[in-house]
Amino acid sequence: MSESQTTGHEAMIEADRLTKYYGSFIAIEDVSFRVPRGEVVAFLGPNGAGKSTTMKILTGYLAPTSGRARIAGHDMSTDRLAGAERLGYLPENGPLYPDMTPRGLLEFFADARGLSRSRREERIESVVRQCELGSVIGKAIGKLSKGYRQRVGMAQVLLHEPDVLILDEPTSGLDPNQIREVRETIRRLGEKKTILLSTHILQEVEALADRVILIAEGRLRFDGTPAELRREGRGLDERFYELTRSA
After folding, report:
1. Do residues 183 and 130 touch, judged by C-beta distance below 8 A?
2. Average of pLDDT values for 8-24?
3. Residue range 45-60: average pLDDT?
4. What is the rounded CA–CA span in Å between residue 112 and residue 224?
5. Residues 170, 150: contact at Cβ < 8 Å?
6. Spatial CA neighbour of 17 closest among 62, 51, 66
7. Which candidate in 17, 40, 125, 204 could, as Cys together with 199 as Cys, close a disulfide (CB 3.0–4.6 Å)?
8. 68 in helix, strand or coil?
9. For the segment 125-147, what is each residue's pLDDT rounded down to a tens digit?
10. Which CATH architecture group holds 3-86+162-244?
11. What pTM, to 2 d.p., does this model score?
12. What would you report as the CA-atom Rg of the chain, rounded to the nearest whole angstrom?
């Protein structure tokens, strides 16, 4: 068990026996973990393992069949709006309105979140700088590379200064240079924010994570540090295979 699981640090993300059925199909079952403030956690698993389902429940986009999801102490079934104020969620391949420019999109979301005019300008300037969007701020999103589109999505997620970030496959489909840039952005954000990062890419664990939660066939298989996952000197790929092959 990792240190973060035994300390009394404030839990910013909590999954409490989350279960989701679709008819007779079990998407996830009895999944429990907590992420304290300031930790970057890789949520690892093969395709179809239940990662996206778990994240959608944690963000309040999907209701669990049973169990509870909390963000910064707010139950996402009964107090979703308060939880959403503390949360930034970047879904895999999230919609970005291709005819808009990054500035237009950020202004739209700032208005939707009720930011004042002065606050809106301050936050847009900050996230544009943080995500290095200055060179494309006036270009149509649909004409940007996937790497830049991912940065636009990240900027939108950061606009209201959330304490918690939930990122679903943020480097999926990017080339090696784009992956490097997105990882660097996440690494910087992890210095101040609590991050749950869904991935099936083992290099992401080495590059970014303080801790690993591994899920397979909807059930929790491992929760600990990357060093603990590499038990007895074996590589992450070998341990991943070992923990998921029987699933």
Report:
1. no
2. 91
3. 93
4. 38
5. yes
6. 66
7. 204
8. strand
9. 999 998 889 999 999 999 998 88
10. 3-Layer(aba) Sandwich (3.40)
11. 0.88
12. 18
pLDDT, greater one: 9 or 96: 96
Comparing C-alpha atoms, which of 219, 215, 150, 146 is closest to residue 182?
150
166, two tokens: 């939930």
- The strands making up 194-199's β-sheet, listed across from edge to edge, are 87-90, 164-168, 194-199, 40-44, 211-216, 219-224
Q: Would you kindly state where each structural domain of the chain is located, as residue ranges? A: 3-86+162-244, 94-156
Average pLDDT on 150-163 reads 93
Dihedral over alpha carbons 152, 154, 155, 160 (to 10 degrees): 140
Task: Assign 106 to helix, strand or coil.
Answer: helix
With b meaning 16 or more CB within 10 Å and e meaning fewer, what string describes 63-89? ebeebbbbbbebbbeeebeebbebbbb
DSSP letters spanning 184-220: HHHHHHTTTSEEEEEES-HHHHHHH-SEEEEEETTEE
